[in-house]
Automatic annotation (TrEMBL):
<dbReference type="InterPro" id="IPR004360">
    <property type="entry name" value="Glyas_Fos-R_dOase_dom"/>
</dbReference>
<dbReference type="GO" id="GO:0051213">
    <property type="term" value="F:dioxygenase activity"/>
</dbReference>
<feature type="domain" description="VOC">
    <location>
        <begin position="5"/>
        <end position="133"/>
    </location>
</feature>
<dbReference type="InterPro" id="IPR037523">
    <property type="entry name" value="VOC_core"/>
</dbReference>
<keyword id="KW-0223">Dioxygenase</keyword>
<protein>
    <submittedName>
        <fullName>Glyoxalase/bleomycin resistance protein/dioxygenase</fullName>
    </submittedName>
</protein>
<keyword id="KW-0560">Oxidoreductase</keyword>
<dbReference type="InterPro" id="IPR029068">
    <property type="entry name" value="Glyas_Bleomycin-R_OHBP_Dase"/>
</dbReference>
<dbReference type="Pfam" id="PF00903">
    <property type="entry name" value="Glyoxalase"/>
</dbReference>
Amino acid sequence: MSAFQPTIFVNLPVASLDKALRFYEALGMVQNQIFSSADTACMALSPAISLMLMEPSRFQTFLPASKTPVTGKESQEGVFCITVEKREDVDRVLKKCEEAGGKLDPTTLPEMPGGYGRSVEDVDGHLWEVAWMGGMGEQCS
C-alpha cells in the first residue's frame, strides 16, 4: 500500500466554461472528465493539483448564504502561480494563454534572482504567474 498523498482542489468561479477551458488548456492543464459536469470543469495540473472551474450558480452552492463570489474582474482574492521546467517555457505558455483570451503581463513581477516569471490574467480576471525557478523550487519540497 502506498502512502497517502494529499490533493488540492482550487475552486474558481468562471463566467463561461468554454472560454475558461481554452485558457486553462493553454496554461497546460488537462480536463478530468470524471470530476466535470455541465456546470463544472475539473482541470488537472498534476495528479495532486486541480482547479474546479464553476459557473457562478454552482460556485455559490459551496458558499455560506451570507457570502457572494469574488470575481477577478471586480477585485482580487488571490494570485496563483505555476512553475515550468525551463526558462523559455514561461514565454511559450504565456503566448498560448494570450491566444486563448488571456491578458499578458497585467502586473510586473518583482525581480527573482536566478529565476524568471511573468503574469497573465485569465478570461475571468484571475491573476496567474508562470515562473521558472532556476532550481529554487526544489527547495520548497
